[in-house]
Amino acid sequence: MSNKIEGFNFDQRHGKQRVRVARVWRSENGRHSIVEWNVGISLLTDSVVAYTRDDNSDLVATDTMKNTVYAKAKECVEELSVEDFAIRLAKHFTSLYQQVTAAIVKIVEKPWERVSIDGQPHEHGFKLGSEKHTTEVILKKSGALKVTSGIEGLALLKTTKSGFEGFIRDKYTALPDTRERILATDLTASWTYPYESIYSIPQQPLYFTERYSSVKKVLADTFYGPPKEGVYSPSVQNTLYHMATNVLKGFPDIATVQLKMPNIHFLPVNLSNKDNTIVKFEDDVYLPTDEPHGSIEATLSRFWSKM
Length: 307
Prior knowledge:
The chain has two domains: 9-143, Roll (Urate Oxidase), CATH 3.10.270.10; 153-306, Urate Oxidase (Roll). 21% of the residues lie in helices and 40% in strands. It is built from five helices and 16 strands. The strands form five sheets. An eight-stranded antiparallel sheet has the order 3-4-5-8-9-10-11-16, with helices on one face. Strands 1-2 form a two-stranded antiparallel sheet. Strands 6-7 form a two-stranded antiparallel sheet.
């Protein structure tokens, strides 16, 4: 929050980070569900006297914010999405405290997945997955809303149908052209919704959770291509663009999508000395390395989207 103090511009916010909470729901039929969230809260206020004078009377204690997370989780008697929980928290802080002008709630969901035993989903057994579901909700006291969802750590790899050629060459270029390489990345994706108030959000249960699963599937399917023949990738940039385009084409309720795709290298092994080749490899043994790696990212949005 920006304020004018003694001839200076003063920006401030305060909050609580890394609040970990788990919530279990137990249905009457015996099936359990669980979520584990890592919550971060930032409150924007007009209160500056805690900084400029010895006066904390306008401050919401960060310990209170932490306790609010647990209390609000208890109030959720039915399973809900991480986005909906972030909206509930933001609404609480902007409506209860007069001095709070906006709340920013960021949550990372730990990927607990239901296990199957002998082909049957377990009633109360879960295993830890890989990629994480993320969200950021910004809610102003006026009611203006911005909801962003995302994925962290979606590891994707294909062993063929990838190349890179025709790039700029100069005296520092050592990379050869290729039409055959492993393509691997650790995808971070985020997308924003067009909803500008809480009341414009679809009221169907677990709407955001279902959309997250659908977007993740589109991203992976575009990366891999059809199961038999796959799809050729002439560059990470080209694959990224098609992934982002397919998200916007497939989901009219998404306004903007941002993808970050590091190019994680698998280097063909070559064992040789100055006299001869010690072992002849045929693109079947590789040295995996993620340092250094290529860094490719882009944002695609609709013309009417507010960035």
